[in-house]
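EI: anyone free to look at a 332-residue chain?
SC: sure, send it
EI:
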Amino acid sequence: MKQGMLSSFDADCLAGPAAPSLRTALAFRARSLGNLLRMGHCAPTVMKTLLDICGEKESWPVKMTAGLPGGIGDTGFECGGITAPLIFFGLRHGLREKRDGLPVVFYHGHEYYRRFLERNGTAFCREIRGENYRLTHCIRAVCGSPETAAESLRREGDAAIPAERREAYKLMYSHFEGRGFHCARHVLRRLGPEVPPGPELLDAASGFLGGTAFLGLTCSALTAGVMALGFGLREFEDSFPRVLRMIVLMKTGGNAFADHLNRFNGIMNRGKELARWFAGEFGDTQCRALTGCDLSSVADVGRYIETDRAGLCRAISDKVAEKVRSLAPAGN
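SC: here you go
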């Protein structure tokens, strides 16, 4: 599945000199709600809205988000309202722009993460949606994401990463850079030609390192694997009646995520299959548990380096790529 170029992408479309006005924020929310009611899933809705705001027509970034609803492969962890903007920040910055030895994408990612927590109280899908799908909470998280992304891009973000934590991240990034390794980008590279790893595709995955921007959350190799599955998507969901039927099933205990009910469901279900395999193969899906290291600690990063945990991460990334290759496309 070859991705096109983001020929019309305006890198500064959300990063003007002032915070979004109330009128602009309301317009962002309205566009988000309209997309959500036609698409039915969080991460694709947020990415589609961000691209719409920027006047971008290319569809492959939305495909990258197709398996992320439900908290990256339906694990219940990072909300699609977090993962889609982080992909967007990667498209804007890649790893090219650095400040004080750390790529800018991580500053914006942490600023966004902080603001998302302030708005929603948690970063995790399972806590936002609750046991019985508190849809108003999901709608608030999704519809507030574009303006939160705009606010985050308008700040340098240094304050979002305290100095001690920043030193740990810089040490970790320098180690990875020296080894020529980036877990998420490594998975995508290994998947060519199934997922041609062009520069923009690799840029999109830039913020997923060390368990989502070094936060120690979902292993970024797993996240990249779920993203790669999205390229099996043939067309997007675009029907309010079908989304309404899915919502009714959510609230009544039916199987709202059967493949045939929503065109994104098949990819999400394969992402879930990948996540289950990953947990069974490695014992957990979270970076901190897998490495035994807190990447915000200089001491733990030192231990990661001394004990060659990067070799473990590379081996995990290789196995994820092999597993993704074995999973059939969704065929939606």
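EI: The mean pLDDT is 92.
SC: 👍
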